[in-house]
Design goal:
Layout: H1 2-19, H2 25-56, H3 61-97, H4 102-117, H5 122-145, H6 157-174, H7 181-192, H8 201-205
Helix pairs in contact: 2-3, 3-4
Length: about 210
């Protein structure tokens, strides 16, 4: 028993010593990036999939759990692969050119995005739209910081909120098929299901009646 513990401690010391080696830092960062991508993807997707599945999807309890597990695995896997690819390409470019430049980040992310997130499926679509909204905000702020557009005299956010909500509800009412299925489900629940009821049970307690009254 003691011999096994000693071997484990020796192995742990060797691993810790390896992790302190600067010459292996780039490769180890790629591995930890893969780990962090997998963990973060699971943390983000599992609660979202849990809520959306039990709110909007039909099927047995087992089928719902399977759907949650599949969505969580897909998000976790894709994010892990992307971080691994991105950091690996960054390290390779930096090593080849002897230094890191801004274009390296753009190119590595483009390649990773093409390889990992290029498949047009619901999970990837949600991630891309999430990033796109933040990119637009970031580019707008960068344009102001660089002086490409003047600093607004008033906060433009109320106008943005009005245009976003006006546009999305117009699309939902008249061009619904252009919206993502999960957004269609959410808006149907909010704006259409609230138009239908039969008695107090499906007016206050349930969204829809499950019996055949």
């Amino acid at each position: 028993m003691a011999g096994g513990e000693d071997s484990f401690r020796a192995l742990l010391r060797a691993a810790n010593a390896l992790l302190q080696q600067r010459r292996y830092h780039a490769a180890l960062a790629v591995i930890k990036g893969f780990r962090n991508g997998a963990v973060y993807g699971a943390k983000i997707r599992a609660p979202h999939a849990l809520v959306m599945t039990f709110l909007f999807k039909s099927g047995s309890f087992r089928e719902k759990l399977k759907s949650i597990a599949q969505a969580t695995y897909a998000h976790s896997r894709n994010l892990a692969y992307f971080v691994f690819t991105y950091k690996g390409l960054l390290a390779a470019q930096s090593r080849l050119q002897g230094k890191k430049i801004p274009f390296h980040s753009f190119l590595a992310a483009c390649i990773g995005g093409w390889l990992v997130f290029g498949d047009n499926n619901p999970i990837n679509s949600q991630i891309i739209m999430y990033l796109l909204s933040r990119i637009l905000f970031g580019l707008s702020r960068l344009a102001v910081q660089k002086g490409y557009i003047p600093q607004p005299r008033q906060d433009p956010f109320p106008l943005l909120a009005a245009l976003v909500w006006g546009t999305v509800l117009w699309l939902f009412e008249y061009h619904r098929d252009t919206l993502q299925p999960s957004l269609q489900s959410s808006m149907t629940y909010l704006y259409e299901d609230s138009e239908v009821w039969h008695d107090v049970s499906d007016f206050l307690i349930y969204n829809k009646r499950t019996d055949s009254k």
